[in-house]
Amino acid sequence: MTKEKDELKKNLEKVAEEQGGQQAVSYQDLFNPRFMQKNTHFTTIDVFVRELGARSFPEIEQLGQKVVDDFVKKETNFNSWEEMQQRAVSEYMTSLF
Fold first, then answer.
1. Three-state SS annotation for the chain
2. In this structure, is residue 11 part of a structural domain?
3. Is residue 23 included in any domain, yes or no?
4. Are 48 and 36 a contacting pair, CB within 8 Å?
5. What is the per-residue pLDDT across 52-76, written as a single tens digit (0 to 9) for each?
6. What distance in Å separates the CA atoms of residue 48 and residue 2, rounded to the nearest whole number?
7. Any domain includes 71
8. Are 3 and 61 in contact (CB under 8 A)?
9. How confident is the model at residue 97 (pLDDT cuts 50, 70, 90)?
10. Residue 27 located in a structural domain
């Protein structure tokens, strides 16, 4: 498991704990249309994934970190995929309170 994926998983687990462990948070909730439109050139995470060259969200990790980071740097307000994920988790957690 990559460091970024590990960190995202920990953040998601923290969110789930804070919600009383009700359910896992989906990537669509984290990368909701509002987040995507504010921070990227895409309307939804699914459009982002397709333009990146993946068929589904889980396939992003198979593309290679440099490929994903270069795409994120070019098409979003972030410098890396890790930074984008961290901001999504942070904004999601903030929206809960």
1. CCHHHHHHHHHHHHHHHHCCCCCCCCHHHHCCHHHHHHHECCCCHHHHHHHHCCCCHHHHHHHCHHHHHHHHHHHECCCCHHHHHHHHHHHHHHHCC
2. no
3. no
4. yes
5. 999 999 999 999 999 999 999 999 9
6. 21
7. yes
8. no
9. confident
10. no
Kindly report the three-state secondary structure assignment for every residue of 77-94: CCCCHHHHHHHHHHHHHH
- Examine the pLDDT at 90 and tell me if it is beyond 90: yes
Furthest-apart CA atoms within the chain: distance in Å: 37
The parent domain of residue 56 ranges over 37-97
- Which residue type occupies 11? N
Compute the distance between CA of residue 48 and CA of residue 85 in angstroms, rounded to an integer.
Answer: 13
Structurally, the chain folds into a number of domains equal to 1
> Average pLDDT in the 13-36 region?
77
Q: Does the pLDDT value for residue 36 go beyond 80? A: yes
How far, rounded to the nearest angstrom, does the alpha carbon of residue 53 sit from its chain's CA centroid? Answer: 16
